[in-house]
Amino acid sequence: MNALREALIDLGAIRHNVLELSARVSPAALMVVIKADAYGHGAPVIAQTAVDAGTRFLGTLDIATAIGLRAAGIGREVDILTWQYGPFEDFRAAIDAGITLGISRQSELDRVESAASGEVASLHLKIDTGLNRNGATAADWPALVTRALALQAAGIARVAGVFTHIAEASDAEDDLAVERFRAAIAEAEGLGASFAVRHLAASSAGFRRDDVRFDMVRMGGHVWGIPSFDGITPAEMNLRPALTLSAAITAVEPLGEGAGYLVEVPLGFADGIPRNVRSLVEVAVGGIRYPLVDEIGHSSFTLRVDAPVAVGDRAVLFGPGDSGEQTVREWGDLSGTLGDEIVARLGERIERRYLPA
Amino acid sequence: MTSAAAAEPAGDAPLRIAEIDHRAIAANAAVIAGLAGRRGMVAMLGANALGHGRAEAARVVVAAGAALLAVPDLAEARQLRAAGVDAPLLTWLHAPGDMAEVASLGVTPAISSLAQYDEAVAAGVEAAHLVPGIGGAQPGIPTADWAELCRRAGAASAPRITGLMGTARTTLARELFSEATVTALEAELPVELVHGIDFEPGDDFDGDTAVRVGAPLFGLSDRPGAHPRDAGLRPAMTLKAGVVGLKGSAAGVGVSYGYRYLTTAQTTLAMIAIGYADGIDRAAGNLVPVQLGGRRFVVAGRVAMDALVLDVGSLAVRPGEYATLFGDAETGVPHIDEWADALGTTSAEIVARVARRVPRSHR
Predict the structure, then answer these.
(1) What is the pLDDT of residue A314?
(2) Which pLDDT value is given to residue B7?
(3) CB pairs under 8 A between A and B
(4) Which of residues B219, B247, B268 is at a domain's end?
(5) A7-21 pLDDT per residue, tens
(6) CA-CA distances (angstroms) from residue B208 to A232, B137, B196?
(7) Is A302–B319 a contact, with Cβ atoms under 8 angstroms apart?
(8) Angle at the Cα of A80 (from A74 to A86), degrees rounded to 5?
(9) Which of A300, A316, B259, B277 falls between 20 and 30 A from B205, CA-CA?
(10) What's the CATH number where A328 sits?
(11) CB–CB of A130 and B141 under 8 A?
(12) Does residue A6 form part of some domain?
């Protein structure tokens, strides 16, 4: 097969990274966060691969994705956590599917109560420790905990966990968030709560700091082999980038004796290739990297290639870096963003293909 | 108040929505047709019509008089045909072996090499356009081979060469395209549609017999700094996302990852359910305007994967209320051109990257 546009995802690399990261954060557990279709890698396949590698916790952001995973065969031995909802979204289906609900506010507990149907809803309560997005404020926290405990006493819910997100602005800021998190836990315990799973850290802090891991660390980017912080390569972290983005060359124009070839690559900004990488990155053909010429169009860009090349040959934009290509981490660094953003925005025209684990 | 009611989603309304206004596309097509005069219109609907829905857009532009629809590759051509669109269709990105399906779908390929021409002949393709090599944005048939290919094509019964395609962005490329056109006409090829540029209002298309137009149909531009509204074009997409959380905050508090925004007074922070996984540029924080409750706010701090924050001061906001990121500026909401200017990119890129997980509604 020679797909026009292809994201080849090496499930062996995913498995390797899950095992590596699990060992790294142990004795804390690893939650694999597969929101945004596993950052473009395909949520159901990545979820199954992570579960096969021993993961018992998945995070999906929304209920629809979580229920989709249950339907795809991820059983109840795996805890699936959601934490973003429509303001009027019904929780019944999530509770019936044994999905764990992240709870930030009273209105969400209202919906847990009104959805009660005999199945006990598993809850993780969320405290805001400074990021100022989701999570109860310190002022609202005691009332949220008290109400959740009342639902537990009524047999409607089980308060299984407590969590927060941190800003990763600096270690000092994160230390402050950890302190607030501990205080919130202590306050909740004083009200009678007992949390089996406490989690605060994501990829970056969770990888670097053993004092922020609590019972679980949530990771996305690192699982696909994309380092989330500066100055380090995937290899230095013993991680393997899983996704290789390539395309079949659609046109080759010889530019004359010794002048090389103008080559058309059928990937453009409508596929998620950022226009601003045009003069920053290089693309590999036959194991050699070449610069882009001209602007990135909606569906294609052009390279000037020295060595003879044929229509149908593959141009590799990024991958593990084994065959001369750059990594998506390098693309992110060069264009001032995260590799995460680039892979999460890869478009629907790109075919996903999987190498078995 | 009806406008407030309309701003509030009902029970199962989506958290994020891209509204596509067919009247805007029709009006834009009429503006382009006016600029084209007697020249034909080739409507580019690639990348699912830049996220506006290819089948819906196809019906609108065909009704507005488009002579030919163009999508990059066979996958998109197949989808248009499957949606019942039987208008003439051009494709230009081809893999070896594509020509058999090109023939069976009744698609007109733009041919960029001698090998592809031979494949089209062998597959019995009825009509084709040719792409002359002019350097730069789109490789084509080398100048050295052009006259010979035109002669062969003129002598052959099929495919009929009904058009010439180029993506000229420089004066030199324009000249090379014009020379190639002259050669093709001298070979008496039955060329009807000569389209040498991705047309935008203000372009000089001397020598072309067709305007090939994509982004402007949707009120957008492919060029940084361009303002299509100055030519009377209207953005066809309005992007909205719901408020999922509200939080009182003191002054001097950092917001979102990296704390790149600090509140300056006691305020309310509204969390909006849209982020970079939805296609919003991660760099848009502290730069782009978003409308909420009739007022404009600049995104506070980093855009995260699934959310962004607005510092709304004392504004009364209800959970579930929609914020409008960009849309029809006639209604006072931010214009996509403001976003493009703030981000230093093109409106076409911003809109094309609005992700599939954002549902579309059509009117």
Answers:
(1) 96
(2) 46
(3) 202
(4) B219
(5) 999 999 999 999 999
(6) 52, 18, 7
(7) no
(8) 120
(9) A300
(10) 2.40.37.10
(11) no
(12) no
ipTM of the complex: 0.92
* Among A159, A199, A133, CA closest to B305: A133
On whether both A91 and A17 belong to a single domain, the answer is: yes
Residue of A nearest to B92 (CA): A250
Question: H-type helices in B158-203, by residue range?
Answer: 171-186
For chain A, how many structural domains are there in total? Answer: 2
Which pTM was predicted? 0.92
B51 within domain boundaries = yes
- Over residues A131-179, the pLDDT tens digits come to 877 899 999 999 999 999 999 999 999 999 999 999 887 888 899 999 9
Whether residues B208 and B275 share a domain: the answer is no
CA distance B92 to chain A (A): 9
Count Cβ neighbours within 10 Å for each residue of B217-249 and write b for 16 or more, e otherwise: bbbbbbbbebbbbebebbbbbbbbbbbbbbbeb
Q: Is B76 in the A-facing interface, judged by CB distances under 8 Å? A: yes
d(CA A67, CA A85): 13
Instruction: Name the residue range of residue B291's domain.
Output: 2-18+236-362
Which residues of A are part of the catalytic machinery?
35, 261
CATH of the domain at B286: 2.40.37.10
Q: Measure CB to CB from residue B47 to each of A173, A253, A270 and give the nearest one.
A: A270
The CATH number of whichever domain residue B120 belongs to comes to 3.20.20.10
Could you identify the residue written with the tokens 């990105």?
Answer: B93
CB A125 within 8 A of CB A162: yes
pLDDT tier for residue B4 given thresholds of 50, 70 and 90 = very low
Residue A224 has pLDDT above 90, yes or no: yes
CB contact under 8 A, B138 and A300: yes
Kindly report the nearest CA distance between residue B144 and chain A, in angstroms: 9
Same domain for B76 and B177: yes
Tokens of B91: 């494709």
Q: Do B95 and A2 touch (CB under 8 A)?
A: yes
Whether B159 and B64 share a structural domain: yes
Q: Which residues of A touch B319 (CB under 8 A)?
A: 87, 107
Backbone angle region of A107, left / alpha / beta, with phi > 0 → left and psi within -120 to 50 → alpha: alpha
A156 lies in the same domain as A40: yes
Give tens-digit pLDDT for B309-352. Answer: 999 999 999 999 999 999 988 888 999 999 999 999 999 999 99
Same domain, A189 and A264: no
Task: Give phi and psi for A230, each to the nearest 5.
Answer: -75, 155
Residues B342 and B262 grouped into a single domain? yes
